[in-house]
Amino acid sequence: MKVLLVEPPAGARFSRERGGLFALVAAADHRLPLGLAYLAAALEARGHEALLLDLNLEPLAGDELIARVRESGAGLVGVANNFTATAPAALALLRTLRDRLPELPLVTGGLHATFCADEALAAGAQAVVLFEAELTLPDLADAVAAGAPLEGVPGLCLPTPAGSARTPPRPLPRDLDALPLPALGRLELGNYRGGVLPVGYPVISTRGCNYACYYCTSPAFTRTVRVRSVGHVAAELELALASGFARISFHDDNMAHDRDRFVALCDVLRARGLRWGFNARAEQLDPPLLDRAHDSGCDAFLIGIESGSAAVRRTIKRQEELGPTRALVRRALELGLHVVCSFTFPHHCDTLETTAETMRLMEELADEGAVLNVTLTTPFPGTRLYQNPGAYGVELLTRDWAAYDLRTPVFRTAAFDAPVIARLFAALEELFIDSAGRAAKRWLGQRGVELGPLAQLDTTALLKALGGL
């Protein structure tokens, strides 16, 4: 049976309309839908034919969209619903397909859908695949092809006359090496290999996180880190190389949680001459390990700092001290790495004084050469902050998912109401813009492009010039 998997249009955090740096980032933000490629491989391993449609690259709507779905000959359509801010687009897509093609089996899944299954069913989905889908979706497709009831498929949320009901839970896949490598041949990879900024092929070498940040959905899945063998990751790196990618971006929550495995991966990457970047917590790294990564082709890493206040960091259980973290950042900059220091604001315990501490730290890091990333703390469904805001002295102000974009205040704290949060965040974002602007100038200057003030850039001319690099 043919199964059509659809990636809905995603609203960008940075828009071309804002001009300058924001347009530059938005133009590079074509993200390869790796999750759908994994699901396509799982379906094909079961004997189904998987088709992928990325509406971020093909902005089909209305009659054109319906015609494309009909032409696909699909006997089942699955709509991704991963990110809360783009859930309205996914839900609108479900409603359109249900209204226009009522006879077509229609399902959805993903991070947001897992925690908000009832709204997806109300929008027209006949089933919601819960948590990770590589095992569940092929079983569901088998049932649809055979005309069997979906109640026999574990890991689903189904509509009932009284609302909804869940089939028996399905354990998360333990042996990640048993899952097939992503079906990259189902994507037009030229759309994801570059653009105006260097874009890496995304690799997820581990799943899960053994930490429990109150603003993160990962603990709702598991507190256990499941790993792929180094050999299995190496096979995917070979696939990426064969597909024309020369850079790898690891999307693991904490890639360096196992030191020996991290070193082994460094050796694999070095042997293939790949450039790469990764995310890590400071307590998992030290200068010798960072040196090993650099010698293996690492050119960038993101480190979560979250706050410049020691008191806030203790309260949110960020156990690592800032002194070693600062030393690690300095060493990375000495090595010439592109270093991104990530902050979230406000935490439930933030005050004006702790916010000032965070601003001072951000300014110091930017002066040293780091790029800052700052997002609003957002109570996504599935997080402890969303499930029990009162425990943190927080009041949710809206469940308009479009506002859950990491830039719009959706709650107030004991210290700050939403307008104050917005003003403070704007000041923090200016620090980000300045640090990213400096990084963009360095990167472009190395390639012979000299820039004036970023706010005064002719965005169209800039993008045209960058396209020729």
Write the layout of secondary structure elements.
Layout: E1 2-7, H1 20-28, H2 34-45, E2 49-54, H3 62-72, E3 76-80, H4 87-100, E4 106-109, H5 111-115, H6 117-122, E5 127-129, H7 136-146, E6 156-160, E7 163-166, E8 201-203, E9 206-207, H8 218-221, E10 226-227, H9 230-242, E11 247-250, H10 259-271, E12 275-280, H11 287-295, E13 298-306, H12 310-315, H13 322-334, E14 338-345, H14 352-368, E15 371-376, H15 384-387, E16 395-396, E17 411-412, H16 418-445, H17 459-467
Parallel strand pairs: 1-2, 1-3, 3-4, 4-5, 8-11, 11-12, 12-13, 13-14, 14-15
Antiparallel strand pairs: 5-6, 6-7, 9-10, 16-17
Helix pairs in contact: 9-10, 10-11, 11-13, 14-16
What brief labels describe this structure?
single chain; six-stranded parallel β-sheet; seven-stranded mixed β-sheet; 17 helices
Give an overview in words.
Helices cover 39% and strands 16% of the residues. The protein has 17 helices and 17 strands. The protein has helices at 20-28, 34-45, 62-72, 87-100, 111-115, 117-122, 136-146, 218-221, 230-242, 259-271, 287-295, 310-315, 322-334, 352-368, 384-387, 418-445, 459-467, and strands at residues 2-7, 49-54, 76-80, 106-109, 127-129, 156-160, 163-166, 201-203, 206-207, 226-227, 247-250, 275-280, 298-306, 338-345, 371-376, 395-396, 411-412. The strands form 4 sheets. It has a 7-stranded mixed β-sheet with strand order 2-1-3-4-5-6-7, sandwiched between helices. α10 runs parallel beside α11 and α14 (352-368) runs parallel beside α16. The radius of gyration is 22 Å and the shape is globular.
